[in-house]
Amino acid sequence: MENKRNTEQKRVILSALMNADHPTASELYEIIRRNNPHLSRATVFRVLGQFADDGTVRRLNLTGSDTRFDARTAPHAHCHCDVCGKIFDVFEGPFAPVLQISDVEGFRVSSAQIEFTGVCPECQTKLN
Ligand SMILES: [Zn+2]
Ligand SMILES: [Zn+2]
């Protein structure tokens, strides 16, 4: 029974993360809580940590922000809007080969992050 419950909790947490926009653990907990009031904050934090450690999800440490979580594990960069704070996934671009590098001067790369900060198209429209 315990295992079945754990599996169900993991499924709920992962699907919430897939539908959220790079949330912090606290933000994700607030989202999950609405439909799953029985899931504790400690459980959400613990399961997220396990997912990040086993590679199911990625931890993101973006400028001026608590650790965020990303359900998209394929290599991609992030554009972080200074105005609205939204984070956009970008998979294609001249930076893409950098995310594929596995060796830097003998250093075996396990992960790389590219973050572009600036103003998103929507906020540019509002500013003009
Ligand atoms: Zn924006
Ligand atoms: Zn992402």
Describe the structure.
The longest helix has 18 residues, at about 1-20. With about 130 residues, the chain is of the alpha+beta class. It is flat and about 45 Å long. Helix 1 packs across helix 3 and helix 2 crosses helix 3 (about 40-55). The chain is about 40% helix and about 20% strand. The strands form 3 sheets. It has a 3-stranded mixed sheet with strand order 4-3-7, with no helix packed on it. It has a two-stranded antiparallel sheet with strand order 1-2. A two-stranded antiparallel ribbon has the order 5-6. It has 2 domains: about 1-70, Winged helix-like DNA-binding domain superfamily/Winged helix DNA-binding domain (Arc Repressor Mutant, subunit A, Orthogonal Bundle), CATH 1.10.10.10; about 75-125, Dna Ligase, domain 1 (2-Layer Sandwich), CATH 3.30.1490.190. The model has no long low-confidence stretch (mean pLDDT about 90). The protein has 4 helices and 7 strands, in the order αααβββββββα.
| Number of DSSP E strands | 7
Q: Kindly provide the radius of gyration, computed on alpha-carbon positions and rounded to a whole number of angstroms.
A: 17 Å
CATH topology-level fold name of the largest domain: Arc Repressor Mutant, subunit A
Oligomeric state of the chains? single chain
By secondary-structure content and strand pairing, the structural class works out as alpha+beta
* Distinct ligand kinds: zinc ion
- Which ranges are low-confidence, i.e. pLDDT below 50, for 5 or more consecutive residues? none
Gross morphology is flat
- Calculate the mean pLDDT score and round it: 92
